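Researcher: For the annotation table, I need structure tokens for Threonylcarbamoyl-AMP synthase. Please keep the output clean. Sequence:
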Amino acid sequence: MARLIHIETDRQEALRAAVDALNDGLPIGLPTETVYGLAADATNPAAITRIYETKGRPRFNPLICHMADVAMAERHVVFDPLSRRLAERFWPGPLTLILPRRAESPIHALATAGLDTVGIRSPKGFAGELIRAFGRPLAAPSANTSGQISPTTAAHVAADLGAKISLILDGGAATVGVESTILKVEGEYVRLLRPGGLGAAEIEAFIGRPLVRPAAAGAAIEAPGMLASHYAPGAAVRLDAVSVGAGEALVRFGGVDVEGMERARIVLDLSPDGDLAEAAANLFDYMKKADATGAGMIAFTPIPETGLGEAINDRLRRAAAPRE
């Protein structure tokens, strides 16, 4: 079972143990402000292979590479002027940029799924501190079995992958609760490949133009989180519920009353006050709690598409998509 170190209790030991594991080519459970990541050396093909094997992740699905800061990123990718402005404005934070990989970058092709671009971001808090101490970028998808609910606590990671990895760092609950927003600048256009923890409206206000929204389902995979079925619990997922069947689990938003609530196996509210940031932070944890009841169906009431609601609805639609 994985060793668990609480960062607040022993930050220096957490750093030392993490750097040692990463130098040995081992993936670790790492807290970020978005979700917990399964982090390993992005320049080490054996380490990257262990990420894919631990998660059971398809190898055509690229990994985000996490950087300490813009200066580290510049050694690995080529910034266009707008992407650099976005990085300087929103890093560290929940924004991933898809950029051309420099020919001399040691980031391994396994991390990019063979693409000539790479998704990069600079995380807040301890993760950035660890990358700086390690001195190399970390490939870090979410620390869960591929396609299932993303983890927002160390306990989530331990329950899913604890028998497969050697170290989990506990930094408390993730404050954002959904993965990063992914952008790709293409000339005058900025494409939103995945809505996430940085709201589209904030980005649009900064760049002074609307984002081009995600491509239709079935488009080529350019970034993580683009698979049609993803973030899924064991139970089936039903969206825009206005009633609940006997034995279903109900996850509502904003304290809305739903017909048949008394028949639900469990009733959870992402945010009784209708706060989308609170809802995003609770989303994956509440999906796990609803799934743990053994209900065959989890019903979600409507979530507004504004602000972080766009990212929440993206995750819910992928969780509800048909599974192969």
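Researcher: And a one-line annotation?
Model: The chain has a mean pLDDT of 93.
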